[in-house]
Amino acid sequence: MPALVVVGAQWGDEGKGKIVDLYTPYADLVVRFAGGANAGHTLVVGGEKVILHLIPSGILHQGTRCVVAQGTVLDPEVLLNEISQLSARGVSVEGRLFVSDRAHVVLPQHKLVDGLREAQKGANAIGTTKRGIGPTYEDKVGRRGVRIGDLLRPALLEEKVRANLEAWSPIFEKLGGTLPSVESVVAQYVELGKRLEPYVCDTASIVHTSIQKDEKILLEGAQGTMLDIDHGTYPFVTSSNAVAGGACAGAGIGPTAIQKVIGISKAYATRVGGGPFPTELLDEMGDLLRNAGGEFGSTTGRPRRCGWLDVPALRMAARVNGMSEIALTKLDVLTGLDELKVCVAYELDGEKLLEPPYDGLESVKPIYETLPGWKEDVSGCRKRSELPENAQKYIEAIEKWVGVKVGLVSVGPDRDQTADLVDPF
Ligand code: IMP
């Protein structure tokens, strides 16, 4: 069984990009299975910054093939822009990038309505990335979406775009927005389709062939478990399945192909956008984590909300993902603190809860355990055994409370600033 799933165990931004990048040399195929241009990962290629939202960062390894599968929603302009940015820096994607003909297309009306709705919600806004993700998934489920394959069929595209715009018309009228014309959308997207055509195919077949050849497949999730449409802090969630199970539907494989699930968690917690966040620190400690951890979104630039590690959320993530192990990131950010707090349970109406409740997460009181911090620089440690004693104890406590072992530990942003990196397959 050759497939490994990497998912976010918190609210996204756990550092999946770096971990996928580290595991890519061991993989033959990297598959992005959910989400869209709401995700973002900043890479440095040839000394210059490139932000990838859709193409797996595995593309930087010349021998690796990358798939953007049908569980994703694609903004063709963003995808083509990423391809050009990469090729301008000498990274060719020809023959190595495969884009699903079944993935749904983010259209201009989706981005517009995302923004209009957020503005209308005011203080209750979800804090979406305004990349049109929710409305595109809405059209997919409503069976009025446009798929990438439709971009290569102009007559069919026109029919679908017309029906789609008609469906949005009353909503735009109510929200006071202006819908684009059928003609403008069709003209623009036929052109985009022509440019995308060399990459478009039935990606599930590619993944299947890879499985049959017993190749190693890395399935890359987007966002995090607490933002999952089914398991997250609904309605403050994204619109797709960010959990490991989403890899099956999103990539087009059976659960029997998956041998391992690695959940990525920061050594503390962050969240962008609205919604409950029990361990949030609204004081100087929160600022300290934000500045030390560079906690500003790579897609929207928004400052991230920061807090102590939330074990109940991680426990749930371990359960719903079937997590085999945790990859712990940004441990270095905690260096220098006298003591560290970890939320090990919540209290709600006098009751102790070990996992997030159905509702009331915004009212829970975190129950904290306090552990001693460490002052020694950890960024040079390449083995867990080289970490300061208190850092090792912190990791052991997390393993005990969550009930899942910690494998890899990231101690800095660079590839080599990693402890206990081993072949994950
Ligand atoms: P949407 O996915 O743009 O609809 O946003 C829904 C929620 O998910 C908002 O709170 C976003 O901030 C959050 N979100 C979406 N993508 C990411 C991500 O890649 N990292 C962290 N948060 C995200």
Describe the protein.
With 425 residues, this protein is α/β, with parallel strands linked by helices. The protein folds into three domains: 3-101 and 199-262, Adenylosuccinate Synthetase, Chain A, domain 1, CATH 3.40.440.10; 104-196, Adenylosuccinate Synthetase, subunit A, domain 2; 265-419, Adenylosuccinate Synthetase, Chain A, domain 3 (Alpha-Beta Complex). It is built from eleven helices and 20 strands. It has helices at residues 16-23, 76-88, 108-121, 133-141, 154-175, 182-196, 203-212, 246-251, 284-293, 311-321, 389-402, and strands at 3-8, 29-32, 41-45, 48-52, 65-68, 73-74, 97-100, 104-105, 200-201, 217-220, 258-266, 269-271, 305-307, 309-310, 325-329, 339-348, 351-353, 365-372, 406-410, 418-419. 50% of the residues are buried.
- Radius of gyration from the alpha-carbon trace, in angstroms: 21 Å
**CATH architecture label of the largest domain:** 3-Layer(aba) Sandwich
Fraction of residues in H or I helices: 25-40%
Query: What share of the residues does DSSP label as strand, in percent?
Result: 15-25%
- Give me the CATH fold name of the largest domain: Adenylosuccinate Synthetase, Chain A, domain 1
What coarse outline follows from CA principal-axis ratios? Answer: globular
Computed structural class: alpha/beta
Overall structural domain count: 3
Determine the CATH superfamily of the largest domain.
Adenylosuccinate Synthetase, subunit A, domain 1
CATH classification class of the largest domain: Alpha Beta
Report mean pLDDT, rounded to a whole number: 96
Work out the number of β strands.
Answer: 20
Trace the largest sheet across and list its strands.
9-7-5-2-10-1-11-15-19-20
Number of helices: 11
How is the main sheet built? 10 strands, mixed
In angstroms, what separates the terminal alpha carbons? 9 Å
Which ligands, by name, code or SMILES, are bound?
A: inosinic acid
Uncertain residue segments: none
